UniProtKB/TrEMBL annotation:
SMART domains in the cross-refs: MR_MLE
UniProt source species: freshwater metagenome
Upper classification of the organism: unclassified sequences, metagenomes, ecological metagenomes
Protein name: glucarate dehydratase
Reactions performed catalytically: D-glucarate = 5-dehydro-4-deoxy-D-glucarate + H2O
GO MF term list: glucarate dehydratase activity
PROSITE patterns recorded: MR_MLE_2
Biochemical pathway: Carbohydrate acid metabolism; D-glucarate degradation; 2,5-dioxopentanoate from D-glucarate: step 1/2
Enzyme Commission designation: 4.2.1.40
Length: 384
C-alpha cells in the first residue's frame, strides 16, 4: 500500500467559550487536516495544530512531495526522508507539527488497510482505560470552583487549572478550586512559562498550601537549568512541557534532573512513533509521562489515545481539549469520557469516521474569515 497523494486542508473552528490562559484569550482553533491517499483506495487522516494554518499547510505540502510512492507503513523511512532530504532539521519544533499530522494519517491508513486498531503497531494495549483531567475554563474564581466541583462529582480524579495571570488572581482561583473539590482530588496548575525564576519560586511557595500535585512548565522553556533550580527550590512536583518538544530537549531535561514528570504529546514530538519512543526514554529515567493536548480536534484525541494505551508509565489525568471546540470533524457519537475515563473502540485505524461535510465547513470558514488570533483580552475577539 503506497502513498499516491497527501492533501493539506486548513481549518478554522470556533470554541464553545473563550479559553483563558497566560498567553491571552482564544476564541477558536486553527488546524490543518492531512489526508493520506493510497494506491489501494485506503485513506488516512491526521490533524496538525498551529497558529496560522497557511504555514503548516505549505510546509506539509512540500514534505509530501518526498513521500509519494513510499509504503504507508514505512514510517521510520518516511521520517528519515523528511528530516534528511530537506532542511527541516533546522526548524525542528515547527517542522515537527506538520510531520505529526502527516505521520498520524499514515498510521491511520495502515490500520484501516490491515483492519486493525493502530495501537497494534506500538506494542499493543496495556492501559485498559485512559484517565483524563477535568479542564477548568474561565478566569472567575466562583465559576471555576463550581465547575471543579461538578467535575469531581462526575468522578474526575484530576483537576487542571491555567494560572499565570497575576499573583492575586492566581491565589484566588487556586484557593477557590481547592476549597470546592476538597482534599482528595489531584490539583494541577499550568502557568505556561509565565514566570521568571524568582517569581516562579515565590508563586509556587505561596500556592503550596493548596496541596498541588504538580506545576507545569512554570518558567521559559529554553532555560532548563532554571527549571532545575525551581524544582530544587519548592516542595511541589515540577512538570516539563514546552521544554521537551524534541527528543534532544527531552534528553537535556532528563540529564539535568529538571522535572519530576514529563508532559509530552504526539503533536509536540513529531508524531505517534516519536512520542512512544520518548515515553520509553522517560520511563528509562524512572519518570512517568502525561499525555499533552493542544487546541485540537477529536481526530487527534482518537489517534493519541491509541498510542497512549500502549504506554506503561502513563499518568492519571491526561490532557484532553477537543471538547472545547464548537464543531466536530467525525461522525457518530463523541468520545465518551464519563468521569474522566475512556475505553478505546476496536475500529480499524485510529477508530473514527471522518465527517466530510464538517471538514468542508471548517475549511470554508478559514477561506472566508482567516485564522483565529490569540488576543489579550475578551474585548478583542476576531480573526486575522
Amino acid at each position: 500500500m503506497r502513498i499516491t497523494r497527501i492533501d493539506a486542508t486548513p481549518l478554522a473552528i470556533p470554541l464553545k467559550e473563550e479559553f483563558h490562559w497566560a498567553g491571552g484569550t482564544q476564541v477558536g482553533a486553527n488546524l490543518v487536516l492531512f489526508t493520506v491517499h493510497t494506491d489501494e483506495g485506503i485513506i488516512g487522516y491526521g490533524d496538525a495544530v498551529c497558529e496560522d494554518p497557511r504555514a503548516i499547510a505549505v510546509t506539509g505540502e512540500q514534505m509530501a512531495r518526498q513521500l509519494v510512492g513510499k509504503r504507508v507503513g514505512d514510517v521510520e523511512a518516511i521520517l528519515k526522508s523528511i528530516w534528511t532530504e530537506g532542511r527541516w532539521k533546522m526548524f525542528p519544533q515547527f517542522a515537527g507539527f506538520a510531520i505529526a499530522g502527516i505521520e498520524v494519517a499514515c498510521w491511520d491508513a495502515l490500520g484501516r488497510g490491515l483492519g486493525v486498531p493502530s495501537r497494534a503497531f506500538f506494542g499493543g494495549q496495556v492501559q485498559q482505560e485512559l484517565d483524563y483531567f477535568g479542564f477548568l475554563q474561565g478566569d472567575e474564581p466562583t465559576k471555576l470552583a463550581a465547575d471543579a466541583r461538578t467535575f469531581v462529582d462526575e468522578g474526575y480524579r484530576v483537576i487542571y487549572l491555567k494560572v499565570g495571570r497575576g499573583a492575586r488572581d492566581d491565589d484566588a482561583c487556586v484557593a477557590a478550586v481547592r476549597e470546592a473539590i476538597g482534599p482528595d482530588p489531584l490539583l494541577r496548575i499550568d502557568p505556561n512559562e509565565a514566570w521568571d525564576l524568582a517569581t516562579a519560586v515565590d508563586r509556587i511557595r505561596r500556592l503550596e498550601q493548596y496541596d498541588l500535585d504538580w506545576v507545569e512548565q512554570p518558567t521559559p522553556s529554553g532555560d532548563v537549568d532554571g527549571l532545575a533550580h525551581v524544582r530544587r527550590s519548592v516542595n511541589v512536583k515540577i512538570a516539563a512541557d514546552q521544554s521537551v518538544f524534541t527528543t534532544a530537549q527531552l534528553r537535556h531535561v532528563l540529564q539535568k534532573e529538571a522535572a519530576d514528570v514529563i508532559v509530552q504529546g504526539p503533536h509536540d514530538a513529531g508524531g505517534l512513533l516519536r512520542f512512544r519512543q520518548q515515553a520509553f526514554m522517560t520511563g528509562a529515567h524512572g519518570l512517568n509521562i502525561n499525555l499533552h493536548a493542544f487546541m485540537q480536534s477529536e481526530i487527534a484525541f482518537y489517534a493519541h489515545a491509541q498510542v497512549a494505551s500502549t504506554i506503561p508509565n502513563l499518568t492519571l489525568g491526561n490532557q484532553v481539549m477537543h471538547q472545547l471546540l464548537g464543531e466536530r470533524l467525525t461522525r457518530g457519537a463523541a468520545p465518551d469520557i464519563t468521569g474522566g475515563r475512556y475505553r478505546l473502540n476496536d475500529q480499524p485505524g485510529h477508530g473514527f469516521d471522518i465527517d466530510e461535510a464538517a471538514v468542508a465547513k471548517a475549511h470554508e470558514r478559514w477561506q472566508t474569515q482567516g485564522h483565529y488570533q490569540t488576543v489579550e483580552s475578551v474585548n478583542k475577539k476576531g480573526h486575522a
